[in-house]
Amino acid sequence: MKFKKLILASSIVATGLMTNLTYAAENIKVGVLHSLSGTMAISETTLKDTVLMMIADQNAKGGLLGKKLEAVVVDPASNWPLFAEKGRELLAKEKVDVIFGSWTSVSRKSVLPVLEELNGLMFYPVQYEGEESSQNVFYTGAAPNQQAIPAVDYLMNDIGAERWVLLGTDYVYPRTTNKILEAYLLSKGVEAKDIMINYTPFGHSDWQNIVADVKTFGSTGKKTAVVSTINGDANIPFYKELGNQGISAEDIPVMAFSVGEEELSGFDTTPLVGHLAAWNYFQSVRTEENDKFIKSWKKFIGDDERVTNDPMEATYIGFKMWVKAVEKAGTTDVDAVEQAMIGIAVPNLTGGIAVMNANHHLSKPVLIGEIQANGQFEVVWSTPDTVIGDAWSDFLPVSKDLISDWTAPVSCGNFNIKTAKCSGE
Amino acid sequence: MLRIFSLLVFSCMSWFALAENAPATESNTQFETLLAQLPSTKLSKMAPLVDKIAAQPSPQVPELLQHLMEGELYYLKAANELVYAQPNQQQTYDLTSVLKTEALAPVSIYALKKIRTNNRIRGQIRDLLANMYLSNSSPAVRLQAIKQLLDNPSKTGITSITRLIKTEQEKEIRELMSVVLLIEQLEKGQTAEKLAAISQLEGRLEPTVKNALVKELKKLSASQDLSISQDKSELHKALTRAIGQMEQDGDFYQLLDYLFFGLSMGSVLLLAAIGLTITFGVMGVINMAHGEMMMLGAYTTYVIQQTFPNLIEYSLLMAVPAAFLVSGLVGVLIERGVIRFLKGRPLETLLATFGISLILQQLVRTVFSPLNRQVEAPQWMSGSLEINPIFSLTYNRLYIIIFALMVFFSLLMILKKSSLGLHVRAVSQNRDMARALSIKSSWVDAITFGLGSGVAGIAGVALSQLTNVGPNLGQDYIIDSFLVVVFGGVGSLWGTLVAAMTLGTFNKFLEPSMGPVLANIIVLVGLVLFIQKRPKGLFPQKGRSAE
């Protein structure tokens, strides 16, 4: 009993001290945990710059809680274990108040235990495979039900696809997404023989067989569509081979989940015109917020040719929300901000309002765009309203009863609605 | 092929443009009202409108649809009219009015609103145009049109084919027309007609024909007990036989397909490995920077395309000697600067060349940025050579096979016939003896290393057509190159050829059933087992002092 009191007392003192320390510090520190070298540098450097731009913006407006924001940038160098180390450095040594970071799921999974151990707060800005919910992470990218499922619905209802080719790079995101999609397609009455699944290694460049297989698979008279979770470099030789073997978007459309403006920039997209991508944001959407964002991005980076993309919007929304939550809580204390975050609303760049839900996922619109000859996307379909991100897929048997709710009384990331218990406990 | 087609279409459009100056009639005003609806119509309501426009007798219809399909139809906000717009060099858009003939000044994109389409609308327009182009004066356009109609024949299409087949001069087009009619007959006709159609369709390869036959067979099996009527069972037999024949043909061509894939992959491996085999064989140097020599060759291609943007069609031809020189020169520098000081110390050379490879990668990253660079494919390298409806060879791979063999035989000739080759062979067989015979072995080393690196540069030119030109290009191929060299037997050109083709073909035959990851693993395991049995590879060096 005495011992418990002692712990309580000391923790109160400790918290007091910590708060004092934070108040004593001159600046609010924002950690940036994005790879600036290695294979992911191409994508992640852009996000680092986005955070820096947002910080500069906020400081120009007078900072936050009367203090200046200060960026602490580290480079985990596309090395997954290094994400954990650098995350620890940010939290334990630099004592940052929040982290913006990670791109690949494996890097997020590696930094997650550190965040939970040291009670840090991270904003994760990329679409991912779901099946995860942590109190210390806010997921501002799309969950599968905000990208994959609506995209498949579009192919099914608007394009009339009956046969499905699921192509992916061999790692956790495509495998989990395809598992969800396969279950979803089967539940919609698609026969197993009408689904073809294929995985290729990172950077795969010899697509002859696979594209020929797709062609044969699609020649049975039933409308065929490809759902691509192919990541990174491998996309270019893949699309090239499609063009060379004479598969046009009208014959067999390819719906990609990882190809955005950045990936297409500087590449001749004429043979790709009409192929599709599903995101929550496209640069081509004309709204006042987006025009402003694009303009300030080009000015900040000093290059008129640079494009914006979906993870940048997710970073933008995440940052704006965090600022609002800190203002609402009146402190940068992680627990207070975490609770203040829920319900915070920020306008999306493509119209509508993004709301942070109790499961730490956003409500966002889903857009489907066709690739144009200029490397931009033209929106051909969008959800009439925003869609709430679902941490746990309803189409997988292991997760269909799980929900995530970080508000009282549930306060749990994997609450089973059948047994009314948190599975993790 | 598609590009040739659109070129032709444009040439016939100028013909349409000539016929355009007809006086405004009642139908023309109706056409104009329909056009006026285009800017405000939502994408979901577009399809019926396009159908209505296509049904108009106005001569501008095909041109309009063509532009709409290619995304060049815009709405000029200020003047309130439809225009065809194309971007020009000055970042503005050149305009041509749809209805009037007077010229319009170029405008910026903000003055325009694009008439949007999507895949479905484009597909619909393609079908509509195919119907119109069936009677076109150019045979190539007619052929493309009938091919389009073969997959999606419409009612109006069938009527016009029935009419046009009588006057069609080209044999190939007439044949395809009859296939469309026969499929129609197969679907709608009486049993006797169906049987006749099947017997005429037998031996065709088009997937559409097979699909029609399979559909018919399904319908038959579902509808009736076969034993009741003899007609039906006969039909059943004929259908099964025709489908079986088609499947057999399909399997045969699939085999050819895999063979082609295998050979093309083998050629890439050959190109990548052949330079290595020379340096490895002659000097015993494990050159870890070999991949970076390929990368330099690929970047040379990129630089040449950037320097001569108007000569894309010839840039690859220019790039081959240039890449040979650049990579060869770098090779000689590496040999003179580093490797010759490490003679006879394979581990140290391995480490040194590995270091060089990292330096070169970082250098390229600094100069060209870590992003992949785009190397354009010339027209003659894109598309595919269609041999029959289910078998075609992609041009880029075809040229690379030919190119790889050319490189192989030129190297063979150099080593067999030239005095340099003689010296190289002498040094590789017995260095001390060669030196005793007054061959400058250090000079031979430098030239050999330069030659090997230069060939790697040439390989880079070919690779720029297949994969990403980026700092990591070399790394992706270095392992494969070593595999080929070790499998083929160090220093043997023929061994490299056989090894590359074997590995490529093996891989491509395994891939469809195993998937690319597992296929790679199986090839590797097989190779390990092979090396256990024959450590010197397929074609070991012979001779008294060869070790």
From TrEMBL, chain A:
What is the residue range of the signal peptide feature?
A: 1-24
Domain of life, per UniProt, equals Bacteria
Would the keyword Signal be found if you checked this record's keyword annotation?
yes
Q: Which UniProt keywords apply?
A: Signal
Please report a single Pfam family linked to this protein.
Answer: Peripla_BP_5
Q: Does the keyword Signal apply?
A: yes
Tell me the NCBIfam families matching this sequence. Answer: urea_ABC_UrtA (TIGR03407)
Q: What's the protein name? A: Amino acid/amide ABC transporter substrate-binding protein, HAAT family
Organism of derivation:
Psychromonas ingrahamii (strain DSM 17664 / CCUG 51855 / 37)
Automatic annotation (TrEMBL), chain B:
Could you tell me where this protein is found in the cell? Cell inner membrane
Transmembrane residues, as ranges? 258-286, 314-334, 346-364, 398-415, 443-462, 482-503, 515-532
What's one GO-annotated cellular component?
plasma membrane
- The UniProt entry lists the main location of this chain as membrane
Give the InterPro entries listed for this entry. Answer: ABC_transp_permease, ABC_UrtB_bac, BCAA_transport_permease
Alphabetized UniProt keyword annotations: Amino-acid transport, Cell membrane, Membrane, Signal, Transmembrane, Transmembrane helix, Transport
- Give the GO molecular function terms: transmembrane transporter activity
Q: How does it sit in the membrane?
A: Multi-pass membrane protein
Give the Pfam families listed for this entry: BPD_transp_2
A GO biological process this protein is involved in?
A: amino acid transport
Q: Which residues form the signal peptide?
A: 1-19
Stated family: Belongs to the binding-protein-dependent transport system permease family. LivHM subfamily.
- Cross-referenced PANTHER family, in alphabetical order? ABC TRANSPORTER PERMEASE PROTEIN, BRANCHED-CHAIN AMINO ACID TRANSPORT SYSTEM PERMEASE PROTEIN LIVH
What is this protein called in UniProt? Amino acid/amide ABC transporter membrane protein 1, HAAT family
